[in-house]
Amino acid sequence: MVRICKTSGLLSMFLALCIYGFAQDQATGAPKIVLDMLVYDFNEVKQGQVVRYDFIVHNQGDAVLEIRSVKPD
């Protein structure tokens, strides 16, 4: 069995979104990105096996949260 460290860039994408959210100004009228889970461990998977996890993204700010681009690792 092979331990997969990368999850097809999903983890990197959502961590980047999370960092973007924390960097936003918390003043009135600003979006605030919040994720229920920042990391998901797939444990051991067989080589070639497809794994998937959906990260849930919330906007707890009082303005529209726009995700304009995503760049997976």
Task: Give a written overview of the molecule.
It is a single chain. The protein has one domain (2-59). It has one helix at 10-23; strands spanning 2-3, 33-35, 44-45, 57-59. The radius of gyration is 15 Å and the shape is elongated. The strands form two sheets. Strands 1-3 form a two-stranded antiparallel sheet. It has a two-stranded antiparallel ribbon with strand order 2-4. The mean pLDDT is 76. The longest helix is centred in the first third of the chain and has 14 residues, at 10-23. The protein contains one helix and four strands; from the N terminus they run βαβββ. With 73 residues, it is of the alpha+beta class.
Task: Characterize this entry briefly.
This protein has 73 residues and is an alpha+beta fold. The protein contains one helix and four strands; from the N terminus they run βαβββ.
Characterize the main sheet: 2 strands, antiparallel
Beta-strand residue fraction: 5-15%
Helix/strand-derived category reads alpha+beta
> Could you list the spans in which at least 5 consecutive residues all have pLDDT below 50?
none
Overall radius of gyration: 15 Å
Q: What is the percent of helical residues? A: 10-25%
How are strands sequenced across the largest beta sheet? 1-3
- Number of DSSP E strands: 4
- How far apart are the first and last residues' alpha carbons, in Å? 23 Å
Please tally the helical runs, counting DSSP H or I stretches of 4 or more residues. 1
pLDDT averaged residue by residue: 76
Count of domain modules: 1
The global form is elongated
Order of helices and strands: EHEEE
